[in-house]
Amino acid sequence: MNSDHTTIYDIASEAGVSIATVSRVLRGETNVSPATREKVQQAIERLNYRPSSIARGLTSKTTHSLGIILPKLLNPHYAMIFTGAQEEARKLGYTMSLFPWASLDTDAYNPAAMLIERRLDGLIVCVEYSPKDHDELVREALNTLRRYMPVVLIGCVPPWYDFPAVACDNAAMMRRIVQYLTRMGHEKIALIGGVKEDTDPLRRDVGYEKGLADAKLPYTASYRVFGKGTAEAGKAALDQMLDGLKREYWPTAVIALNDLVAMGCMQSAREHGLGIPEQLSVIGCDDLFCAPYLTPPLTSVNTRQQQTGARAVQLLLSGEQKRETTDWELMERASCAPVHTGI
Amino acid sequence: MNSDHTTIYDIASEAGVSIATVSRVLRGETNVSPATREKVQQAIERLNYRPSSIARGLTSKTTHSLGIILPKLLNPHYAMIFTGAQEEARKLGYTMSLFPWASLDTDAYNPAAMLIERRLDGLIVCVEYSPKDHDELVREALNTLRRYMPVVLIGCVPPWYDFPAVACDNAAMMRRIVQYLTRMGHEKIALIGGVKEDTDPLRRDVGYEKGLADAKLPYTASYRVFGKGTAEAGKAALDQMLDGLKREYWPTAVIALNDLVAMGCMQSAREHGLGIPEQLSVIGCDDLFCAPYLTPPLTSVNTRQQQTGARAVQLLLSGEQKRETTDWELMERASCAPVHTGI
DNA sequence: AGCTATAATGTAAGCGCTGTCATATACAAC
DNA sequence: GTTGTATATGACAGCGCTTACATTATAGCT
Q: What DSSP string runs through B132-149?
């Protein structure tokens, strides 16, 4: 099994040179005579030698391995980010390991220990809106970690989190969505999902309110429901809103935090006898692979997650300290339609 | 940054002992006096010391890191497997890194090199049905890799692949599915997706034919379409089948390789004016998170992917050489119904 | 031929741990 | 006191590389 790996010494004696020379050809240094290089390469070939990245790491103090922390790979949104990051890392010769979100916000003794012991060359963290108390733990963990390795954040990061990051301009996106709906004549537009505290200029609520203001519509508290980003939460939220409102006040359009929430909302609408998009337009965010296959196909926003992941890796390795904003694209499908005035 | 990690020497001098002693308390050996242990622990605390897993790995010849290779994380099926594996690995103190499928079936010079250089403690490979030529490359790569690290396979592995593995008994599952449909009166049952060569007793075609035989139904070649496991492929396959058959021969039920394919089939059916489940029952496999949110909710088979991933890790680390078969459960939803004879 | 600049190669000291072996100390039995 | 037996601790040699630095070979001069 992993016992008898051949070492640089084996190659050296096989090729009749010193280990330093082997090391030189291994790392492609130029000051090796062609003849020697050839001899060494042959020996490597013959003995099927693969240098140990472990030993290499010990001296070079670099492991060529990166880590990524995200809340839940089962949400394809994160799977896309991971994929983009992994592929980019791979291209650049790095390995990508997944660490669970719990590595950060547990209050166990130094949750980040495992990350530090691994001596990663960098860490990507997909931040998630979290309740205040967890937030504190996360910030603390991140600040510890950054003393040991570069850290890049993905997602909307409060401005006081002083980290390089790449995120979608959710505010602009949301403003555009609201505009999209108001132009279709919608005036009762609900926004479902997310957490309450929202002072980040990039974040959704900012754009939502701007969008409403653009159309001279009032902000109506009962059309804003907070909650987690799952389908169940989405369904529960819309259920609650509809059940709590007289029918004449029911929204004609609902914007969901993400496609999962949108799926829950569609479910809820269906159960309340609302036709989509006839009585209720629904728009999601993330453009998951299943969005086009829902009934009706779900209008959503593609936020270029793979590209986001890849870009995060680039920032990580280049050491640039900037915050970047990613592109996004509104994918118009059948779940949104002009408001139905004729009833 | 990752510069000045404190080392075991720092701790030793801080605590006024030798590095051997520090190492002992680090690894929890018992032959250390309580007083000394305390001194060392205090020093560790004070200097915020984290041992380097790299240096440790050099001597101990174990990296505590595992790898997993899978075709496509964007398919939630694999994301579930990954998640299960990652969580189990983490529990056991291991790190899990993702490597792309291309690490195996590229014909580039030794695609597995990166894996070997990393000195992984084990590797999980989710095999995918692949065309014959690729298959050869994969087998070769796997046989190289196993010389360096234990390898466990996930998925249906041809019997001549001599590896420990954990897989769902697709044949039994498929037989059950066919039975489920025949009991509803279906006689024209299509099977869509997968590759042609199928002599593995665990694999779908075997069960499909058994299931038909159980009900004394003939195997009809035109009801069996091969293809990739994507929604697009599923749609194309059913399109082709329907377009090539007179309406009276159209199947009344279709079994899809997986939920993605099923989603494509539903799309195709819809476009051909077939109501689901009135004119066509559809059943998928994998029970993706979105299955309940499709219209109609998709009947599928839950194959316990997370558990599968976790089990693979256990096999990997225990060194057991057996092949295991996983549970599965038919999730009845609305996309299947008794055949509609009344027309 | 003698001498120097340059290219090619070798020597050896780490990197931060583990693990073996040797040493030191303490205490009991004689 | 001596010897014996644990028990606690330290010294040190690796693990498989990288990388100064030292050494040697080669070629280009005068």
A: HHHHHHHHHHHHHHTTTS
pLDDT of residue B109: 62
- What pLDDT digit, counting tens, does each position of A218-246 carry? 999 999 999 999 999 999 999 999 999 99
Average pLDDT, chain A: 92
What pLDDT, in 10s, does the model give residues A252-270? 999 999 999 999 999 999 9
Spell out the residues 6+ positions from residue A184 whose beta carbon is closer than 8 angstroms to its own. A253, A281, A336, A337, A338, A339
Range of the domain at A223: 170-302
Q: Domain check: are B298 and B205 in the same one?
A: yes
Residue range B30-37: mean pLDDT, rounded: 90
Q: For residue A128, count other CB atoms closer than 10 A to its CB.
A: 18
Does pLDDT of A145 surpass 70?
A: yes
Sequence letter at residue B270: R
Same-domain check for residues B156 and B104: yes
Instruction: Count Cβ atoms below 10 Å from residue A315 Cβ, excluding itself.
Output: 23
**B160 pLDDT band (50/70/90 cuts)?**
confident
Residue B72 has pLDDT above 60, yes or no: yes
**Cross-chain CB nearest to B290 (options A116, A147, A263):** A263
Q: And the tokens for A317?
A: 């390795």
Checking if the pLDDT of B102 tops 90, the result is: no
At A312, which amino acid appears? A
Helix axes B34-47, B19-26, angle to 10 degrees: 90
| pLDDT > 70 fraction of chain B, expressed in percent and rounded | 95
Token readout for A23 is 């090391």
CB contact under 8 A, B119 and A5: yes
Structural domains of chain B, count: 3
CB-to-strand C contacts below 7 angstroms: A 16-21, 24, 30-33, 35-36, 55, 58-59, 61; B 5, 7-9, 19-20, 23, 26-27, 49, 51-52, 55-56, 58-60
User: Residue A143: inside a domain, yes or no?
Assistant: yes
Residues A131 and A205 both lie in one domain: no
Domain end residue (candidates: A167, A182, A197): A167
In angstroms, the CA A171 to CA B62 distance is 48
Query: Are A149 and A185 within one domain?
Result: no
φ, ψ for residue B16, nearest 5 deg: 70, 40
Residues B280, B191 within the same domain:
yes
Where is the domain boundary, A167, A182, A213? Answer: A167
Which of helix, strand or coil describes residue A281?
strand
Q: Report the SS3 class of residue A10.
A: helix
Q: Are residues A143 and A237 in the same domain?
A: no
Tokens 């490979």, residue located: B125
| B82 has a chain A CB within 8 A of its CB | yes
B19 touches strand D (CB under 7 A): yes
> What would the two tokens of residue A269 be?
């609408």
Which is it for strands B329-331 and B300-302: parallel, antiparallel or unpaired?
antiparallel
Q: What is the pLDDT of residue B200?
A: 72
Residue type, B25: V
Tell if B33 CB is < 7 Å from nucleic strand D.
yes
pLDDT tens string B285-327:
999 999 999 999 999 999 999 999 999 999 999 999 999 999 9
For helices A53-60 and B53-60, the axis angle rounded to 10 degrees is 140
Residue at A336 is within a domain: no
For residue A195, the domain's CATH number is 3.40.50.2300
How close B150 gets to chain A, by Cα (Å)? 7
Partners of B329 in the beta sheet?
A: B302
